[in-house]
Every structure is written in structure tokens, then in C-alpha cells.
Amino acid sequence: MLAVCGGVGGAKLAFGLQEEVGAALTVMVNTGDDFTHLGLAISPDIDTVLYTLGGLADPVRGWGRAGETWQFMTALRQLGGEDWFQLGDLDLAMHVERTRRLAGGERLSAVTADTARRLALAARVLPMSDEPVRTTVETSQGRLAFQHYFVRERCMPSVLGLRFEGAERARILPELADLLADDALCAVIICPSNPYLSIDPILALPGMREALARCAAPVVAVSPLIGGQAVKGPTAKIMGELGLAAGSAAIARHYAGLVDGLVVDTADAADADRVLAFGLSCMVAPTLMKGPQERVALARQCLAFAHELDAKRRAERPEETQPWSRSWTEQDSGPSCP
Ligand code: FO1
């Protein structure tokens, strides 16, 4: 099965999915946030996913490593270096090694897959593309590279629009295009990442929307909002700045035509009818993931929802679904997803 993921919030659900299906999980990660900083190739969302799935992530920040020390930053500051982007001493090893391997001609996907193996992850973690895509933010203070907007300016400038530079020339990673075209794919889960900042760069790749719409598996998205607010990060603020009312209806409208179902939090249960009005099925579930148990519980709910949508589609369109070779293991607790 395939999880589509940005950084912190999305990675938590990817962790739960990995607990549930292990090596059957592939995570497609946003690279729009990637940038070169201090000469280093930084891929923040990939690293957040790798650290989270490897049980190495800092539990409070959500990004970077647990037990981190900051001597490099202290020394850099003393020398008058750029210190707005925090690179911990342990985390630094990731960026130095990735930079070395990319400079040696390796593909980002190969470096990422090998790093996942070295960190003993069960899941396969892959960037959305090996070609660079860079998110830039049109703001009240002019155009800003993503990390300048997000970290340096702390998301303070108003967002007027978003661009995904290079997306039109980038190709979906071939391994991911193959997976999306595979009849055995049993579910696609769009994790509760920011739809505008973290998922849209993935959807901007040529052919990605079509591949998702055509894929044999049910596609389920999880709303990143709880009671109209993001758990962390600027989703609700950006929605307001883009003229959208922060709530499940706007998320449903955003994903309409692309996903079969939307999971909304129990705090937003009253929005279910508005989600259905966009032609999506809706599941109400607790989406706040404070700890590992909640991550696994939400993963189970998402898989059960996908299973239900699959059964519904098979019943409604038997002629389309008959050739599918994928199989859910019918268990009361939900599907075991190959
Ligand atoms: N986020 C911050 O808010 N401040 C930082 O200094 C920062 C450093 C950082 C270093 C490595 C890394 O992998 C992630 C880092 N992040 C930091 C997180 C990152 O900027 C964002 O969470 C994502 O790009 C948005 O998904």
C-alpha cells in the first residue's frame, strides 16, 4: 500500500501504517521543501519520515532527532554563520552523507532507500521524484523560497499563492509510477499533511493526478484539521489567506475528484454531510496522534475505511473490479494490506 506524505503530521500516520503492514508499505514523500543550505542538500520531509519510522524523531519538535545536541550551531553562530535553520549535531550526519552521495552521482531515491535500510525501517521510503521541485511562496513580502517562508519568517507573511518550481519538468519516480499502475495495490492513504504546502507539490507532478484517479486502489485522505485548526503548523492560517474557510468542506473540495473518501476528526463529525456533498465518502475518527497507540489506531481506521470503499466499488462496478488481483485478507479487525 502507498502512503502519500509531507513532514511531521503525515509521518505520524505513516508510522502507524508501518506498524500495521510493515514491508507492504511504500511512503511517497514531498520534496518541495528541499533546499541547499550551507552547501548541504537538505530534504526535511524525507528526514522527518525516516526518523519517525525509525523511532529516532524528536517527540516534541516532530522534526530532527531525539537526544540531539547543538554544538555545531553554537560554533556556527560564533563564527557569524547563518543560524536561522537549526541543524543538530546528529542530524548533520544525514545532510553531509546525502550531499556526498548526490555529488557522487547517486539518485535521491537510491540514497533515501539505502538510508531507510540502514535505519532498519520495514517500509520503503521514496521521494516523489528524483528531479528537483522547489516550493516557493508568493507572500505579502515578495516571493520566498519555502524554508525562508516557513522557518526564517516563521510563516508570518501572508500567503498570496504557491508555486512548485520545476514540477512541470519532473517525472514521478518510476518505482512509484509502477506501484500506482499495479492492480495489486490495495490502498492509497494521503496522510494528514498540509494539502497546500505538502501534498500539492506531489500532485503537481505531470501525470500524478491521473495516476491516482486511475489507480486500482481506493484513495483515502485524512484531513489535517481538528475543529477547523491544524494540530501544528500554518494550514488554517494559509487557508484563510487563500480565501478558504478552514474546515472539512474546503479540504473535501480540494481533494474532490482525486480521492474516494475523507477521514475527518470526531470534533468535525457535523461536517460529514458537507464532505458527502462533494461526492466523497466520509469516515469520522479520532485523528489526533499523541502517541504510538493513536497512530496505529488511526492507521487501522484508514485501512478499514479503504477496505470498505473497495468493497463498495466492487459491488457497484463488478465489471471494472473483477480483473483485480489484489487481495484483502478478510479479518474482523480489518484488512491485511499487501
Ligand atoms: N523547522 C523549524 O521550524 N525550524 C528549524 O530550524 C528546522 C530545521 C530543520 C532541520 C532539518 C530538518 O529535516 C527539518 C527542519 N525543520 C525545521 C522542519 C522543516 O522545516 C519543516 O517541518 C518542513 O519542511 C515542513 O514540512
Question: What would the keywords be for this entry?
Answer:
single chain; 338 residues; alpha/beta; Rossmann fold; seven-stranded parallel β-sheet; three-stranded antiparallel β-sheet; binds ligand FO1
Distance between the termini: 6 Å
Going by CATH, the architecture of the domain at 2-39 and 120-134 and 167-336 would be 3-Layer(aba) Sandwich
Unreliable segments of 5+ consecutive residues: 329-335
Number of strands: 14
Which molecules other than protein and nucleic acid are bound?
ligand FO1
Q: Provide the helix percentage.
A: 40-55%
Q: What is this structure's SSE topology?
A:
Layout: E1 2-5, H1 8-21, E2 26-29, E3 35-37, E4 40-42, H2 44-53, H3 71-78, H4 89-103, H5 108-118, E5 124-127, E6 134-139, E7 142-145, H6 146-152, E8 159-165, H7 174-180, E9 188-190, H8 195-203, H9 208-214, E10 219-222, E11 225-226, E12 229-230, H10 235-241, H11 248-255, E13 261-265, H12 272-276, E14 281-285, H13 292-316, H14 318-321
Parallel strand pairs: 1-2, 1-9, 2-5, 9-10, 10-13, 13-14
Antiparallel strand pairs: 3-4, 6-7, 6-8, 11-12
Helix pairs in contact: 1-2, 1-13
The structure holds ligand FO1.
Ligand FO1 is lined by residues 6-8, 33, 42, 44-45, 47-48, 63-64, 85-87, 91, 147, 150-151, 198.
Task: Tell me what the structure shows.
- By secondary structure, the chain is α/β, with parallel strands linked by helices.
- The chain has a domain at 2-39 and 120-134 and 167-336: 3-Layer(aba) Sandwich (Rossmann fold), CATH 3.40.50.
- Helix content is 41%, strand content 17%.
- The protein contains 14 helices and 14 strands.
- It has helices at residues 8-21, 44-53, 71-78, 89-103, 108-118, 146-152, 174-180, 195-203, 208-214, 235-241, 248-255, 272-276, 292-316, 318-321; strands at residues 2-5, 26-29, 35-37, 40-42, 124-127, 134-139, 142-145, 159-165, 188-190, 219-222, 225-226, 229-230, 261-265, 281-285.
- The strands form four sheets. The chain has a seven-stranded parallel sheet with strand order 5-2-1-9-10-13-14, sandwiched between helices.
- Helix 12 links the parallel strand 13 (261-265) and strand 14 (281-285).
- Helix 1 (8-21) packs parallel to helix 2.
- The longest helix has 25 residues, at 292-316.
- The chain binds ligand FO1.
- The site of ligand FO1 has 19 residues, from helix 2 and helix 6.
